[in-house]
Specification:
The structure is a single chain. 32% of the residues lie in helices and 20% in strands. By secondary structure, it is of the alpha+beta class. Among the domains are: 96 residues, Immunoglobulin-like (Sandwich), CATH 2.60.40; 150 residues, no CATH class. It is globular, with a radius of gyration of 28 Å. It has a seven-stranded mixed barrel with strand order 10-13-14-15-18-20-19. A five-stranded mixed beta sheet has the order 2-9-8-5-6, with no helix packed on it. It contains 14 helices and 24 strands.
Length: 568
């Protein structure tokens, strides 16, 4: 007879009872806290494009009831009770709801703008006719004890085969409870209570800027407190399902937050169900991303060209750039315009593009820490102060500066910003990064490197023959100091000539912009009709693009005339 190992037996019994105890504990918590768990709730059709109307079946275990909404709100016991299949048809004929909300921009409050002498007139109008829409179905299964399943969100575009303007774009849907966006008290997309709290007895409590994009508003909330959960669905050009899950969203930008079609950042977090975004299916150079951006175009909102142009034509320079994909956005089921879906400068970007360790990165954006610890700003300030205060004409000092910064990245960056005559720089919209430590790889050397960031206030034809080197020296003490070194000055001017002869040569720019206009025309036409009515037309888009052409034509002549002879 085999001997029984009492010790092993006891251990197994202990593990068995421990497992049972854990399960019981989980059950008790589930019952007492009414938490969500999988109750087998399913929809008979995935989110996507459908040629014809169809009936949608929702199914769940027999001991549950299914409740659903069609207005993007989270369903509960007070929502519609599902009893029979739902007819899903083209929703575009339905009444406009969210697109009629005017609290999204001060541009709708003309009397107030006139009273305060504010500019930045976008010319917005609420749509006069029904705009394109998708059907949003949100459902939850709830059993007799009140336990509820996770909410499922499905988005259906029906009959769009006849709407050819959508054919060549990615389609992205962002669905969140409308209160998250449009509530007077807590909505992150509206002016809301924040402005009213700052405006008493007909006068502002604090002085108001001439640019209403800077005025106090709910949409200026920042940080994790401004983040709201949303369901994001992304369809590729061939209508394959690329993203379909819950993420966090925040408003992104500075003055552009005052626009009606605002930019959004999208964050992957475990608490929403996913710790990363599969960027390999979105961008040619994609990777597992922490976040992505839906960019409205910022200050170039009616052409959306400058940022894309720089990332496309300056990608061979020693400066960081982003990836861009055009997409048409539906917000809570309503068409919301043409956006750029872009990567973001987060730690995953530097880890994947440069091989830097995730926890070894400092990024500074407009003089503040974007990635890293608050004290990391000291490292940046020390570098700027040292270079600014030392005589760079002395070789030893210049060599020391080159030990702190990647000088080729610095020259490429300043030459490009100077070439495009960025009017919102260098006092603003600057960004650079480095590793904290010197370790493995070419880019883990602790040197500062530059990042292209928001050039939407550049390429104005009125500045095409302006001396932007002098302008930059007046505003940037570090650059002014570096320009006292003859080697740096000669390299910078030589790089300007290089850009004129290569990246930004009119023979490159003109066909690039012509192709861009072709790519963006359908989407921009949809956006102009949605937001401006007859105040702006697609001809405004063409005109703004052609003015950028004119800038580069004249800029080429100026650069060659000014610096070409000294830099053959």
């Amino acid at each position: 007879m085999a001997k029984i190992n009492l010790r092993q037996c006891n251990c197994r019994i202990v593990r068995l009872f421990t497992g049972i105890a854990v399960l019981l504990l989980f059950f008790i918590i589930a019952v007492t806290t009414n938490i969500s768990f999988d109750r087998g709730l399913h929809a008979s059709a995935d989110s996507g494009f459908y040629d014809d109307s169809f009936y949608l079946k929702l199914s769940a275990p027999d001991d549950t009831k299914i409740y659903y909404t069609l207005n993007s709100r989270i369903p509960d016991e007070n929502s519609y009770l599902y009893t029979e299949p739902l007819l899903i048809s083209d929703a575009s004929k339905n009444e406009n709801i969210y697109s009629m909300i005017t609290d999204v921009s001060f541009d709708f409050r003309k009397e107030l703008l006139l009273q305060e002498g504010a500019g930045d007139d976008y010319g917005y109008k609420t749509p006069e006719n029904p705009i394109d829409k998708a059907t949003v179905v949100r459902a939850v299964a709830i059993d007799g004890s009140g336990n509820r399943s996770n909410v499922i969100t499905k988005v259906y575009w029906v009959g769009y085969s006849q709407k050819e303007a959508y054919n060549n774009y990615n389609i992205i849907s962002v669905v969140t409870d409308p209160d998250n966006l449009f509530s007077y008290e807590t909505g992150i997309y509206v002016i809301g209570h924040t402005f009213d709290d700052n405006y008493e007895n007909g006068k502002p409590v604090t002085p108001l800027s001439s640019f209403f994009g800077e005025w106090p508003a709910n949409y200026h909330m920042r940080g994790i407190e401004s983040e709201r959960e949303a369901h994001v669905t992304l369809l590729g050009k061939n209508r394959d399902l690329i993203l379909d899950g819950s993420y966090g969203i925040r408003i992104q930008g500075k003055n552009s937050r005052g626009a009606a079609n605002k930019s959004l950042n999208i964050f992957a977090r475990k608490k929403y169900g996913s710790s990363s975004i599969n960027g390999t299916k979105i961008f040619p150079d994609g990777y597992a991303m922490k976040s992505i951006n839906l960019n409205c175009g910022g200050n170039a909102i009616r052409n959306k060209l400058p940022d894309f142009l720089i990332s496309s034509l300056a990608g061979n320079l020693d400066v960081s750039t982003l990836s861009y994909q055009p997409c048409l956005l539906f917000l809570d089921g309503e068409f919301w315009g043409l956006y750029w879906l872009t990567s973001r400068y987060d730690s995953k970007y530097f880890e994947n593009i440069y091989g830097a360790y995730d926890d070894d990165i400092i990024e500074i954006k407009t003089g503040a820490v974007e990635i890293g610890q608050p004290e990391d700003i000291n490292v940046y300030n020390e570098m700027v102060d040292w270079i600014s205060s030392h005589d760079m004409s002395i070789p030893e000092n210049y060599n020391e500066a080159c030990d702190q910064i990647d000088i080729e990245s610095c020259i490429d960056y300043y030459a490009t910003e100077i070439y495009i005559a960025n009017d919102d720089w260098p006092h603003n919209n600057t960004a650079l990064w480095r590793t904290k430590n010197i370790s493995h790889g070419k880019f883990s050397d602790g040197k500062w490197r530059w990042i292209f960031f928001d050039v939407n206030m550049a390429m104005f034809y009125i500045y095409s023959r302006s001396d932007w080197i002098e302008y930059t020296m007046e505003k940037d003490a570090m650059f002014a100091s570096l320009m006292r070194n003859d080697g740096f000055k000669q390299k910078l001017e030589g790089r300007l000539v290089y850009l004129a002869e290569n990246n930004f040569n009119p023979s490159v720019i003109d066909p690039f912009i012509d192709e861009y206009k072709t790519m963006m025309t359908d989407g921009m036409a949809l956006e102009f009709e949605r937001f401006y009515g007859d105040n702006h037309t697609i001809d405004d888009f063409y005109e703004e693009c052609d003015l950028i052409k004119t800038f580069f034509d004249q800029r080429y002549q100026y650069i060659i005339e000014t610096y070409g002879e000294n830099n053959p």
